[in-house]
Amino acid sequence: MSFQPVKFYQTGTFTVGNRLLAPDERSVQAGQQRSNAINSGHRACQGCGEALGARYAIDAAMAASGGKLIAANATGCLEVFSTPYPESSWQLPWIHSLFGNAAAVATGIAAALKVKGKQDVRVVAQGGDGGTTDIGFGCLSGMFERNDDVLYICYDNQGYMNTGVQRSSATPPAARTATTMPLGPEPGNVFGQGKNVPEIAMAHGIPYVATATVADLRDLEYKVNKAMSLHGARYLHVFVPCPLGWGTASHDTIRMARLAKETGMFPVFEAEQGEVTSVLKIRHRLPVEEYLKPQRRFAHLFGKNAHPEIIERLQAIADRNIRKYGLLDEEGK
Amino acid sequence: MLKQTEGSHAVAEAVALCRPEVICAYPISPQTHIVEALGQMVKSGELTPCEFINVESEFAAMSVAIGSSAAGARTYTATASQGLLFMAEAVYNASGLGLPIVMTVANRAIGAPINIWNDHSDSLSQRDSGWMQLFAETNQEAVDLHIQAFRLAEELSMPIMVCMDGFILTHAFERIDIPEPAQVDVYLPAFEPRQMLDPAEPVSIGAMVGPEAFMEVRYLAHAKQMQALELIPQYAGEFKQVFGRDSGGLVRPYRIEDADTVIIAMGSVLGTIKDVVDEMRAEGHKIGVLGIISYRPFPLQAVRAALANCKRFLVLEKSLAVGMGGILATDVRMAVTGSGLKGFTAIAGLGGRPIPKASLHPLFCRAEQEDLPPVTFVDLDEAAVNKQLERERLNRRSGPIAENILHDKGVISAKFG
Amino acid sequence: MFQIRIHGRGGQGVVTATEMLSIAAFEEGRHAQAFPSFGSERTGAPVVAFCRIDDKEIRLREPIMQPDALIIQDPTLLHQIDVFAGLKPEGYVLINTSHSFEDIGLGEFAATHKASHLAALPATEIGLKHIGRPIPNVPLLGGFAALSGLIKLESVVLAINEKFSGKVAEGNVAAATEAYERVRAQMKGGAHA
Question: Do B300 and B349 belong to one domain?
Answer without folding.
Answer: yes
